[in-house]
Amino acid sequence: MSINSTISKNPNKLKNILVIGNGGRENSLAWAIQKNELVKKVYLIPGNAGSERINKCERIKIDIKNKNDLLEKLNSLKIDLIVIGPEIALANGLADFLRKKGFKVFGPGKDGAKLEYSKSWAKEFMQDANIPTANFWKVNSLKEAKKVIYSSSIPLVVKADGLASGKGVFIPDSKDECFKAAELIFSGKFGDSGNVIVLEEKIEGPEVSVFALCDGEKFILLPTAQDHKRLMEEDKGPNTGGMGAYSPAPLITKDVLSRIVKEIIEPTIDELNKKNIDYKGVIYFGLMITKSGPKVIEYNCRFGDPECQTIMPLMDQNFVFLLEKCSMGNLTGSETIDTTDKVSGCVIATSKGYPHEYKTGFPIKIGNIDSLNCQIFDSGTSLSKNGELLTDGGRVLSVVCQDKDFDLVFKKAYKNLKEINFNGIYFRNDIGHQVRKNFSKEN
Ligand code: AMP
Ligand code: GLY
After folding, report:
1. Contact (Cβ atoms closer than 8 angstroms) between residue 193 and residue 163
2. What confidence tens digit (pLDDT) does each residue in 365-413 have?
3. Would you list the domain boundaries of the chain?
4. In angstroms, rounded to a whole number, what is the distance separating the alpha carbons of residues 420 and 362?
5. Nearest residue to 92 via CA among 123, 115, 117
6. By three-state DSSP, how is residue 112 classified?
7. CATH 1.10.443.10 fits 343-421, yes or no
8. Atom of ligand 2 nearest to the CA of 300
9. From atom 3 of ligand 2, which residue's Cα is the shortest distance away?
10. What is the pLDDT of residues 159-218, one digit of tens each?
11. DSSP 300-342
């Protein structure tokens, strides 16, 4: 994949880049950014144990909440561009603060991040802009919730309004279960994120993730991706942050994509402008392709994880220019990302017990890895005192490969996974089942 040459003559200085965040997503962003020869150094705050295995990358140990220390450090490192990964930092206004101090920042301000940190606000936003989404009811008390649940003639989904690390959405099978979910949210389990509940019409269809890099007015799209949210094979078990992904998603044909752009993406950016929100960052559209067309399930104000690890290897060295152009508000909108014949897939290796309780601190052994068009992005790892790689999260490693078709991609990814071991390692064997022609033969 190569990005149109009109942007490769970018004259701006891009020597020192900072990526904020500590996941596989941020490591893959740093990896794609360092490909550009103008880039001398990519700093990660805080990064993880895999960050410094990436060319030109260095971790900075500093608490981003300590604003004075942060500013001093960024000035001394002469940072040219800041990319903010996680939603919490964006929701807390980190992008606004850094922009005010004169930095170029890729990531929306607090106002734009509201698309993700308040589900009820996002639903009202979509209603205002006539963007297709499931019907909804915003409720402020258990009494109100009870009334809606027991008088509804359609199945409902229950969602905590605020950020809940992907754990605030419930898909109940009955009205009683629905009520129990509402009770749990209002009980304070999610803190202030559960002060309001959104009850939503349950809709059906395959899900797809679409990412628009946005400069406030114009946007360009990254290749589409499909995530696998459920823990177990055949899409069973509890929801997770994501167990694997593939890109591009063949389900999104040119026609479907142009419908998504017209009915969802353009109206979203128009509505942001109407509300005076200058959105400079990525908008992640979590969509469901229903019988009546694409509908928005959720907005996020950040890249998806593991979609980002999957998509980044499809970017060429000009990717960092796109981020910079968004941060400066000077996308032309005609930048194109030319697809070649490569596709990409990612399988996540997790700790036993994830997404519930799990233990960490187990040594990770990595054997003979095929590294041609394959990457391992650490998601949750740390180093022991003597430099041994240890598990340090629910999602531990993102194993990513590219090739000319998905059968080859996943053959390589699973071959590499056989070379990786740690106590309690778990991964799904059926990532990409939708697009693997030889899927049943391999399993
Ligand atoms: P969210 O965090 O809002 O993306 O929700 C997590 C998951 O719950 C989504 O990826 C869907 O699989 C499912 N989901 C959310 N909203 C709905 C809905 N209205 N109808 C059916 N499934 C939903
Ligand atoms: N992969 C889903 C997410 O990042 O929310």
Report:
1. yes
2. 999 999 999 999 999 999 999 999 999 999 999 999 999 999 999 999 9
3. 13-109, 136-200, 205-338, 343-421
4. 13
5. 117
6. helix
7. no
8. 5
9. 304
10. 999 999 888 899 999 999 999 999 999 999 899 999 999 999 999 999 999 999 999 999
11. ESS--TTHHHHHGGG--TTHHHHHHHHHHT---S---EE--S-
Which ligand is nearest the CA of 244, by number? Answer: 2
What residues flank ligand 2, with Cβ below 6 Å?
A: 166, 227, 241-242, 300, 304-305, 307
Protein residues whose CB sits closer than 6 Å to any atom of ligand 1:
134, 157, 166, 169, 171, 200, 202-203, 207, 229, 239, 286, 297-298
Given the structure tokens 């009980």, which residue do they identify? Answer: 187
pLDDT in tens, 345-368: 999 999 999 999 999 999 999 999
Does the domain at 136-200 match CATH 2.60.40.10? Answer given as no
Q: Which of 402, 399, 405 is nearest to 428 (CA)?
A: 399
Atom of ligand 1 nearest to the CA of 159: 3
CA of 35 to the centre of ligand 1 (A): 35
Q: Length of the chain in residues, anyone?
A: 443
**So what CATH class is 205-338?**
alpha beta
Closest CA to 139 of 182, 200, 198: 198
Secondary structure class of 274 (helix, strand, coil): helix
In the reported structure, the alpha carbon of residue 388 is separated from the centroid of ligand 2 by a whole-number distance in angstroms of 29
Mean pLDDT of the chain: 94
Burial of residue 165, with CB atoms counted within 10 A of its CB: 0-12 exposed, 13-18 middle, 19 or more buried: exposed
User: What is the fold, at CATH topology level, of the domain defined by 13-109?
Assistant: Rossmann fold (3.40.50)
Judge if pTM exceeds 0.85.
yes
Nearest CA to ligand 1 atom 16: 297
